[in-house]
Each structure stands twice: as structure tokens, then as C-alpha cells.
Amino acid sequence: MSLDLGFWTLQALNALQLSMLLFLLSIGLTVIFGLMHFVNLAHGALYALGAYFAASAAAVGGYWAGFFLAPVAVAGVGVLLYSGLIQRMRKSGPMAQVLVTFGLIFALLDITRIVWGDLALGLEVPDLLAGRVALLGVEYPAYRLFIIALGLAIFGALAFVLSRTQIGAMIRAGVDNDAMAACLGINVERLFFIVFCVGCALAGLAGAVAAPLLSVTPDMGLQILIPTLIVIVIGGLGSLKGAIAGSLIFGFVQTFGAVLAPQLASVLIYALLAAVLVIRPVGLFPAKG
Amino acid sequence: MFRHTPLRYGALVLLASAALFQAFTADYFGLDILTEIVILAMLVIALDMVAGFGGMVSLCHGALLGVGAYGYALLSTKVGLTPVAAMGGAVVITGAIAWVIGAICARSHGIYFIMATLAFGQMGYSYVFEAPLFGGDDGLGGIARLDLSLIGLDLNDGRSFALFSLGVLAAIYGVAVLILRSGLGRSLSGVRHNEQRMRALGLTVWRVKADVFGLSGLISGLAGVMAAQHVMFVSPGLLSWTVSGEALVVVILGGLGTLVGPLLGAAVFVLLKHEVGALTSYWHLVVGILLIAVVMSRANGIFGWIEARFGARIERRAADAVRDIDPREVKTDA
Amino acid sequence: MKRAFLAALGLATGFAMPATAQDIKVGLLLPFSGVYAALGNDIEAGFTTALEQFGSETPATFEIVREDTEVKPPVALAKAKKLILQDKVDVISGIVSSGVLGAVRDMVHGAGVPLIVANAGNDEATGEACSPYITRMSFSNGQVNRPMGKWMHDQGIRKVYTLAPDYAAGRQMIDGFVQTFTAAGGEIVGQEFTPFQKTQDFGPYMAQAKSSGAEAVFVFYAGGEAISFVKQYDSFGLKADLPLYGSGFLTSSLYVNAEGPAAEGVITALHYVPTLDNPANAQFVEAFKAKTGRVPSEFAVHGYDAGRALIEAVKAGATDRESLANALRQVSFDGPRGALSIDPATNNIVQPIYVYETIAGTDGLTQKVLAQLPAEADPVNGCEMAAPVSN
Known about the structure:
The complex is a heterotrimer of chains A (289), B (334) and C (391).
Chain A: H1 5-36, H2 43-61, H3 63-89, H4 94-116, E1 132-135, E2 138-141, H5 142-164, H6 166-176, H7 178-183, H8 188-210, H9 220-235, H10 240-260, H11 265-279
Antiparallel strand pairs in A: 1-2
Helix pairs in contact in A: 1-5, 1-6, 1-8, 1-9, 1-10, 2-3, 2-4, 2-8, 2-9, 3-8, 5-6, 9-10, 10-11
Chain B: H1 6-25, H2 28-51, H3 61-78, H4 83-105, H5 110-130, H6 158-181, H7 183-193, H8 195-200, H9 205-231, H10 241-254, H11 260-279, H12 283-296, H13 301-323
Chain C: H1 2-16, E1 23-30, H2 37-54, E2 61-68, H3 73-86, E3 91-94, H4 98-111, E4 115-117, E5 134-136, H5 141-154, E6 159-165, H6 168-183, E7 187-194, H7 203-210, E8 216-219, H8 223-235, E9 244-247, H9 256-259, E10 267-270, H10 279-292, H11 298-315, H12 321-328, E11 332-335, E12 338-343, E13 348-350, E14 353-361, E15 364-373
Parallel strand pairs in C: 1-2, 1-3, 3-4, 4-5, 6-7, 6-8, 8-9, 9-10
Antiparallel strand pairs in C: 10-14, 11-12, 12-13, 14-15
């Protein structure tokens, strides 16, 4: 085991990057659940869609075309899903929601196969972000630093919106007690719609951002789903603080676990989840304590 | 509380006749599909017990089935027990593990409960996948079926095995009904409706949940044993969360809390997968759209819809038939 | 010219004999849905290409029955039962995953149905679990990696760090390499097995490799994991100081273009690349491209050679399950991979292994063959079988 500081710095940066990627995914999902009490298992599928849209757009206009178009495209899909499906299912219990989103997972899996084929797609890192940066004594890929920066920026923006703007206050009120918020004259339906679409856009962005790093395959949605769910449950549903806390915990446990105890690595994160659920069943920082 | 309405009896009779008809007339592949449906039905009965009647939506039942399957595989091949002993051992082990899971997760509700069970299921999956004892992802083969030559049944024959599985399913159904009608079942119903109240009444709520989960685990373990005997091979995929997810889908598709609905759901789901799969390699899309449609219809699954549409009518007719018999008009032979 | 002559000869003997229309029913047991569909489709395309090209060499006609395994052992077993008991096929071909192979092995052996394995590489299938009915036309995990150990040592590399996913195939692939590399005098300075299909970020492992003091890294990854690994390896800038070697699945022509420039300079070893320079391969690549619009991968060549093997067996006079199983064990021909034959001691294919470097080509990435390593039969490894009856 190397005691070289550079090695540990490298791993810490890796952990941070993984956390930020998961944060982009989990924030959308957790606020959707916190506000709408809707379990959207298809969130992973939206992430995959984002990656595919980005790959297609990038083939025509380069990486940045994908980066900007993917969230918009997935938000568009979100609009369709909301008006066609989610709106009607909102008042149903978790069972119905599980079933509907499971059905969505199945359907979207095959839709990506039909539209984009079975072969894996690739997406190149933009020239601007290719290469490495010398940082804290190590050479770290610039693109991964970009992911970290992006995640932190979005965290900052969302924190600002949620705590300093009126719409943020309305969202927080809705998460706290949507019936009461409606009584106070807040258009809760429209709020839900906006939150859902923003959540979808963030999932699409996560997909576009992850695509150059990982590969674009039909099952990428399924693979990211469990880590995302673990993040939001550990962190606590419905809150920004919960999402960032959960993401950081998962990222660091996963990364350092892989380095320090590779045999236990896969069991470790589930054991952690079970432990959190036993000690604090609602997660660490839920919106509603 | 579980009641047998005339509609449910009728459905059971229909399903049983269809199954027996299939068992005696179908060819090899048809028998295989029948056995697959029957084993899935066993698992979904176990799941309906906890999810439909107990309000505990579990995503680890696939893993429990896997534990039962691997338990049987290891006890019979590596430890060398006789099939009967191995079956018993596997079922007991699975029940014990399920009891522990139920006890640990008893304090969680809703999405947290689902996630907790998912966590345990995935832990099992990861462990089985990586431990060399379990053969890794190449799986374990060479599993033998139960030897019923004493009563003249060769279970290596597809038809006999299908009939045997049907018998086991019928027994499991009966046991599930007994459990749900017992004191434990009523406590469970109470817990599902209002946990606080039950606690106030002096009930040890976590024990009730754990006990029911454990019993459900016994049934799941038996389903796993049957699955291992059917395929004569076990692989870690049995414990994957997607198996648990599919089981949950079948329960909801069939009708949560009806016990009969999931049986119907199992048949519909498996048949649909095979029929659609024969037509196109994009059967996930078709099944997905169907699921969405079923849910959007707001019914409690297929059987729930049938009950809502026709159940009241049939019950009224049955009540009318009884009521219309005027005792004075009954001819007696003096 | 030679083909035309043979065809004419075949026709002539066909006229001379009474018309016995042999109909060979083939069951294709492959994944056609889900994430492995791409491999299943490639293998099938290769198989049907072979039947089209060589089918005329025998009067027999071939009927294909396709069944989807979904890469799930229970599903595959049910479909295998259907093919054997209901469709009554004479021979089965396919099988992508080693788990599926393990599941159907007993059934196929017990029912006496020949199985031509067109992908699954687990060593036991032609080792302790071998069967006179199972012939493998693809590869075995050890076989594709053993030659690389000695070759890398010959290049002057002495210290290697290995990485692979933690499952049976991953371990077997690395074991094959480690065996020969250490036997030649090299040193393995570190090994890691990453959680299979759950690792998305290989960064932590690459950092470990870097700090291990190795001169080179040897890995096995396939599919989506291979794409992620190669791209991430490049992003860390390790290739210059720590060259990347591996098993050819890392840069398979099926998905190497998704890896982009990151794959350039990676040297791997595999039993087939589309740029092999021999007439049989040129013919195959052309026919495959015309049929599917893409360059064939090693999966496609598995299917192609499986089809060819079947035809050779039929040409040798086999007509039913027993005779087909017997004849398949003795096939040998020159295919796109070079000179191929089945070793009757294990029923595994004997084939040359090619070391190649991935380089930029005119139409995407292409493979430059660096060396052709001699074909070696697999060690018997616990297989006990009676020798086949000579044709």
C-alpha cells in the first residue's frame, strides 16, 4: 500500500468526481420524490437517453452540441412523460408508481435499442478539456476536473435558487406540505411540472457528461439506477443537503473501498445502506425530519 | 384478512383446470413453460403475503428464491445430503434469513423499506457472485431432483415434475391462506392499517412483521428449491434485483392483496414474454407498454379489475339465489 | 478455379448418387434481445454467411431454428430443451456466455446432441466438463492469453500489473497470461480484480497500477467495460510511461470505434482481427460487409467457422446427431483465422494467436498485425474422452 500523498490525492479526486456525477443524477430524483412523492425508477433510463442524445448531437456538432442539447431533449421527453403519464399517476400509491416506472424502464430500454442500435457508441472528450492538469502534486485529467466543477456549480446554483428565490421558497413549502402550500395560493401543479422537467434535464445532463468517460450502452441506465437510489436514501429524501451528502458518502466509500478492501468493495456499500436504514430510517438529511 | 369470494373460487378452479389440461396435453416446451409459471406463482404468493397483505413492498424476494436454490444446490451436491434433507435445510435457512431481514427492516416504511430490502438482496447477490464456494458466475450444475420413486413418480420426466410442482403450489396456496386467516394474519392486517394503534394495543409490531417475513421466506425458499430442481443448475442471476422487480411487477399486474390475482399475473406475464419474444426481439417494449396501460387503468391489476367489474355482480347474484329460496316453498316429502 | 472444380465435382457425384435429400436442422441458441444482442446478431450473420458460401459443397440442405437465450441460464436451458425435444434439431450452435454453457452442458451431453460452441470461453467446457458432443470453434480463455505472456517477455518487459473483472472468465484470462509470463521469467507486481459490471470508474485501479512500479499493464475487459477502461486509461495519460497491453477483447473491432483515439497504440492478442492477410479472410470480410454493412468481429468469425465446421462434418458423411458429433471432432480447414483444427483430446479449437496494435486507419480504427504466434492445443486439463471414430 503506497503512502505516497500523490496517490491519495488522486483517489480523493476520483472519489469527488464520482460523487459529482451521482449528485447530478440524485438531485433530480430526490426533489421529484420529496415534492411529488413520486418514485421515478425510470430516472436511470432518462440518464441513458441523455447520453444517447449527446452522442448523436456530438456526431453532428461536436461535444458541446451534445452537452447543451441533451438536457433540453431529455427535458422534452420529461414534458411528454409528465403530461401523458406522471400527472395521472401522482396521486397513486408507491406500488402503482413502481409498476409504471418499471414499465417505462422496459420501454425505454428497447426504444434506445431500436433508435440507436445494439452496438455501443462512443463520445469524445472536447479538445478544450482533453489532457491533464497539474494539481496538488498530481496530474489529473482535465475532463474529470470539469465534472467536479460542474457538479459544484450546479450545487451552488440550486442552493441559491432554493434558499434565495421565491420559486425556491415555493418548492420548499411544497416539499414540506403541498396541501398547505396549495391553500396558500401556490400553483403546486405547475411547480411539480417545472421540478419534474428540471429533474429530467439534470438527468440528461448527467448522461451527456458521463458519456465520454464511460460507454454509451443500452444497459447504462440500469447500471446507474441502484447507486442513485442508494445515494438518495442514505442522504435523505427531498433535500439538497441530503443529495450532496449521500453522493459524497457513496463516492468516497466506493472509491476508497475499492482501493483498500477490493474483496469487500461490492458488499460494503450495501452494508452501509442497511446500516443507515437501521440507525436512521429516514436517511441523514431528509427534507421532512 | 383474506376471504374467498365466489369469484375467487371460480378463478382458482379455472386456473387449476387450465394448468392440469396443459400438464396432460402439452409437449416438452409447453410443460417447461407451465413449470416456470408455477414456480413464479409460488414466489409471488410469498410476495403478495408481505406486500399485499402486510404493506411491506419487498425487492429482495428474488434473492430469497436464489438463497433457497443455492442452499439446495450446495446441501445436495457439496455437503451430500439426500434431496429431502437438502430441501428442508434450504427452506429453513431461507426462512431464517428472511426473518432477520424482516426484523431489521421493521422500522422502515415506504420507499425506505423497499430500499432496505433491495440492499439486502444486492448484498446476497454480490456475495454469491464473488465467493468461489458458489461457483461464481459460471454457476453450479449437477443438481438432482427429488426421488419420488417410492410412490412411482419419476421426477426426471417433464410431465411428472410439472404435476409435482402444481401439487407443491396448491399446498403453498393453502398454507398462505391458513397464515392469513390465523391470528398472525389478522395482526398483520392490523399493522398494515394502523401501526400506531396496534402498538398501543400492546402488540410487538416488529415481531409480527418479522414472523410474516420469515414465513414468506420459507415459501420463497421452497420456490427456490423447485427452481433449482427444474433447471438442475443455479447461477447468481437468480438473486439479481431485476428478478425481485419482475416478481413485484407480476404481483401488481395480477392484483395486490388478492392472492389469486398474482397466480393469474404469473401466467399472463410468462406467456406474454414467450409469445411476444417469439415474434420480436423487442419484447421489453411491448411488456413495458402493457404494464403502463394496466396501471393507467387504475384497476388493482388484472384480477382487481375483474373483481371490480364483475365481483359485486356475482356476489349479488349469489346472495339473491340464496335469498329467493322461500322456506315455505321447499317441498318436503312428508 | 479450385472452388469451381470442387463444385462441379460435387454436382457430378450428386448426379451419380440417388437423390437423398438430407435436411440438417440447426438450432441457433444465441442472445437476440437485451444487451448482448449485438454479439448474437454478429454470430448469426457469420453463420449464415458460411452456409451461403459453402453450402453448395454438399447436397444437404440446412434449416435454421433461432432461439433467444437472453444470456440467462434457465431461459437458455428451456430453449435448448425445446430445440432438442420438440424441434428435434440435429445440431445446436451458438452460446455466448459461459454461464449458459454450464447450464446446457448436461442436457446436451445426456441427449447426445452435438453442440458447436460459437463463443463461450470457459476453460472447463473443454477441460473437466468436456463432452464428446461439445465442440468449440471459438476459443478458450487460457488459449488466447497464454501466448501473450511469452511474447511480452520476449519484448523485454519484466514487470506487469494485471487488471480484470472479478468473475470466472476474468480470472481464467489473467491466469493464462500469468502462467506463461512468470514461466518465462517475468514478475507480476500486482493484481486487481474489479467488481464485474459494477465498476464504472477505473480511476482508483489505474492509480494503483501506476504506483506499483510496473513496466506495463495487462488487462482483460470486454464490451462496455472495455470502452470505459481504454478511454479512462488514455485520459490519465498513462500510455506513455505505462503501455497498455491486454486480451484482444479490449479492442474488439465490434466496439473499438467507440473508444476513439484512446485505443491507438494499445497492443493486444486475439485469435482474429478483420485485417488478417489471407485469401479466406478477404473472402469472408467482403461477404460479411456486403451482408451487414460492417466489418466482421471475432464473434462473427466464430459463427462463420462454426457454420463451416458443420458443412465439413456433413461433407465427411455425417447425417445424424451421433455421426455429426463424431465428425465435428475431426474437422480441420483453412479459415479466415488461418489453419484451424479441432483437438480430439479436448474438442477445443487449435488456432494461431495474433498480436496486433490498434492504429488509426482511413475509415476509423484498424488493426495492424505485429506477430502471428503458433497454434497450440490446450492442455488436457482434466478432460477424459474416448477418441473419435475415424471418418
